[in-house]
Amino acid sequence: MELFECIDTRKTIRKYTDYIPTDDEIKRIINSARLAPSAINAQNWRFIAVLNQDVKHKMAEAISDKYDEITKNLDEETKGRVLSYKGHSTFFENAPVVVVCVEIEAPKFMGGVLEQAGYSKEAISKMRPDSYLLSMGGAVENMILSANALGLSSCWMVAPVLAHDEIKTILNFAENEKITTLLAIGKPYSENPNKPPKKDLSEVMQIIK
Q1: Which ranges of the chain would DSSP assign to H, the alpha helix?
Q2: Looking at residue 62, what is its pLDDT?
Q3: What predicted TM-score, i.e. pTM, was given to this entire model?
Q4: How far is the CA of 138 from the CAs of 35, 39, 194, in angstroms?
Q5: For helices 23-34 and 131-149, what crossing angle results, to 10°?
Q6: Which distant-in-sequence residues (6+ apart) come within 8 Å of 20 by Cβ?
Q7: How is residue 92 annotated by DSSP?
């Protein structure tokens, strides 16, 4: 698939067929993440493709329980709004593949320098966006586009990370590893899924000459 066609046709999909991507397809998708740029070329990441249904069920169950824990003491209106996200956070249980994206702790040189220089945490957050998290975003986008090029679809998920510690225990990750996001992958259930509207280019672009 031509690059711009791949970008233009990408859609977020939450319902998939029973088709299970091959090992070669999964490797190709994750290899595209490996090739993404990373801050100071740290490459401090791992990508775990979960196909095992029992493991996916345990992860979804942990997230569901976390929602119940979070909403336990909320007023009814807020509770209802929060719980409406539960289904959108656990549907990956029925996705053929879930890629768990893991950041491995790495040193942050400039952040420490700015702290020593006396800048507040608020100032540092403006001056130094989380470069490792941005790197992970680039890796995930590579996987999304690679999946589309292979005729697969995906959904980039952050809400499941609410159950970070529980998922980390289920997958037996090391202490210095942090789950940043999940990516559900499979063949789309519908041949022509809806695509939500995007802002016009004129709304988001400015050229300064």
Answers
A1: 3-9, 23-34, 53-71, 76-83, 86-90, 109-116, 121-127, 131-149, 164-170, 201-204
A2: 97
A3: 0.92
A4: 10, 11, 25
A5: 140
A6: 51, 96, 97
A7: G
